[in-house]
Write a structure and sequence with these properties.
Number of domains: 1
Number of strands: 6
Family: Belongs to the ComF/GntX family.
Largest sheet: 4 strands, parallel
Low-confidence stretches: none
Bound molecules: zinc ion
Protein name: ComF family protein
Pfam families: Pribosyltran
Strand order of the largest sheet: 1-6-5-2
Strand content: 15-25%
């Protein structure tokens, strides 16, 4: 209802085709962003069948798997960039709706808790919102799961842009702590972020959760994934 009222006063336009619609209209989503569904192992980027991560890759990750809707192509980059730097949180609400519907279509989660990557406090103060939180809440609305912030940043990290995978992992190490310790009634936690780039941030969040709750499955969920190296996969 809140959204309907807002849309009467503030019509939105598709960021791709400029038609009056949500920030990513159905037509543009299916034409440019929707990729053929296939599970990909986030460790090596190759396709994987009947599981989330290859057996040989599973010892290299804290995540039980990654779900993503689209590849991180230039169009997705522009849409997310617009949301982040034009401070337009509605973009992340709309991407969340698309992502929630995607998860509903292809996956079956029971009793999952949705959480999100906390933002560096300086950046949150500048932007006024945490895009991952807006995105997570919108996904949770579709899936009807609770969304709780269970992680806190205990130190601000340097900007990750342009740094190597190894540097990012070093930079983010020990940056989070678990603030809600009442999560053990859940078997599954869905950890939301806007984009999976090197995976360093999601890995560190998952490591922090599993340090206390090793039995809980932690899946990453992002709108886009930038590490795909399957040659058969052409976005
Ligand atoms: Zn469009
Ligand atoms: Zn793999």
């Amino acid at each position: 209802m809140k959204k309907l009222i807002l849309s009467i006063f503030l019509p939105t336009f598709c960021l791709v085709c400029n038609q009056k619609s949500s920030y990513v209209c159905n037509k543009c989503f299916y034409s440019y962003l929707n990729i053929p569904y296939e599970q990909h192992c986030h460790v090596c980027g190759r396709a994987v069948r009947n599981r989330f991560v290859h057996i040989e890759c599973s010892s290299k990750t804290n995540l039980d798997g990654l779900i993503f809707v689209s590849v991180y192509n230039n169009l997705v980059k522009d849409i997310i960039h617009h949301g982040k730097y034009e401070k337009n949180y509605g973009v992340f609400e709309d991407l969340g709706t698309i992502t929630g519907q995607f998860v509903e279509k292809y996956y079956t989660f029971k009793d999952a808790l949705i959480t999100f990557v906390p933002l560096n406090s300086r950046r949150k103060a500048w932007r006024g919102f945490n895009q991952s939180e807006i995105f997570a809440k919108s996904i949770a609305e579709v899936l009807e799961f609770p969304v709780v912030n269970i992680l806190s940043r205990i130190r601000n990290t340097k900007s990750q842009a342009g740094t190597s995978r190894k540097d990012r992992a070093e930079n983010i190490k020990g940056a989070f702590e678990l603030v809600d310790n009442n999560v053990d009634k859940y078997n599954t936690i869905i950890l939301v972020d806007d984009v999976f780039t090197t995976g360093a941030t999601l890995e560190e969040c998952a490591r922090t959760i599993k340090a206390k709750y090793p039995h809980i499955k932690v899946f990453g969920l992002t709108f886009a994934m930038s590490r795909l190296n399957d040659d058969s996969f052409k976005p």
